[in-house]
Amino acid sequence: MENSLVAVLTLVLCLFASQICAQFAVTLTGNSNHRPRPPDVTLCAQLIQSAGYHCSEHKVQTKDGYLLALQRVSSRTGYIKEQRGPPVLLQHGLFLAGDVWFLDSPEQSLGFILADHDFDVWVGNVRGTRWSRGHISLSDKDKDFWDWSWQELAMYDLTDMISYINSITNTKIFVVGHSQGTIMSLAAFTQPNIEEMVEAAALLCPISYLEHITAPFVLRMVNMHLDQMILAMGIHQLNLRSDWGVNLLDSVCDGHVDCNDLLTSITGENCCFNNSRVDFYLEYEPHPSSSRNLRHLFQMIRKGTFSKYDYGFFKNLKLYGQSKPPVFDLGRIPDSLSLLMAYGGNDDLADVMDVQHTLKELRSKPELLYLENYGHIDFILGVDAKKDLYDHIIKFFRSRGKSSSF
Ligand SMILES: *[C@@H]1O[C@H](CO)[C@@H](O)[C@H](O)[C@H]1NC(C)=O
After folding, report:
1. Residue pLDDT, tens place only, 113-154
2. Ligand 1 pocket: which residues have CB below 6 Å?
């Protein structure tokens, strides 16, 4: 019983970054000697400047006191030009961080490609990831530091990063979100006056509803209420690199689950992932998230709603003035905020049926890009993503951009 619990628990953790996570499990079983990173190393120094791009580190303080690292990237020539192109903010998904947009070659990685096309690239890193672990009064050892879900990531982290970029550039910005980054974007875009700050957004693996996840493993975990168990166990930070996380991964690969099949059994197949680069990816991913965030995601799967966090009857009444958490009304996203939605036929997390549901509730008609053979990770790490996807994003943004210098 205990072993199967641990196995299922690990699968939960692997839910949204499963290819990486599966490989991580395999790697760590053979070699648990992972290196901690010195705290003063920045993302700019680590991955971006070394590739010859100009990069500066910015710090954004959220309304609830978190200190987020935001990087501003441009190509060497882009930096020399007087005028930069329009700003674009890249918002990563669950268990990932801003580094994920720069993990392949400059010809393959969206972050570099946008900079090479003269965009003023800004890289978001949500609270709790390795690059954004500061707070004005809390330490990341405090359990209160981890008391948030994607709702706070949308209303504080994303919204405050967007305001910050606006204040520096004086221009409406473009947003690119992947996976949980699209949940955050769609929730944030329902706020009043958002069209004064955001011109358009490209949503990769777009998620607002999670009702049609079909993977049996995921459903089983949800039905077992593993999210509640983790919280009841007093675990607030979900960190796969901690001893706790490593032990979990060790035991899951110890005869209980075939780790090589983990990916396919949860997300379906990623067509275009470069397996020989996994060791390098693992120097950066996965990043921590919070147990409460996992719980919020599981609430979405259970209830089929796109709502605020459900605290239970009484606390909902107290906090929201109603017994059920308020929904995010996609109909409030302004028509003038153009959307490109790119989704994959093999993506079992952003299910096609749930994407249709999202489309039905939006006022505008987003541009759609359906990539039949794409799984959840191909959208950021696929070897042919430039031709399949990124070229479309650039064309879409250029057709929306008002800046004539561009
Ligand atoms: C896959 O990664 C290896 C190792 O970095 C690299 O040499 C190779 O060119 C990559 N393949 C593709 C198709 O990008």
Report:
1. 999 999 999 999 999 999 999 999 999 999 999 999 999 999
2. 274, 276-277, 383
Cβ(12)–Cβ(227) under 8 Å? yes
**What's the CA gap between 139 and 57, in Å, rounded?**
21
What CATH code is carried by the domain that includes residue 175? 3.40.50.1820
13 within some domain: no
Q: Total structural domains in the chain?
A: 1
**Mean pLDDT calculated for residue range 309-313:** 97
- Hey, whose CA ends up nearest to atom 1 of ligand 1? 274
User: Where in the sequence numbering do the catalytic residues fall?
Assistant: 179, 347, 376
290-296 mean pLDDT: 95
Q: Encode pLDDT of 373-386 as tens digits.
A: 998 889 999 999 99
Pick the residue whose CA is nearest to atom 5 on ligand 1.
277
- Output Rg (C-alpha) for the chain, integer angstroms: 20
pTM listed for this prediction:
0.89
Does residue 185 belong to any structural domain of this protein?
yes
Q: Is residue 47 part of a domain?
A: yes
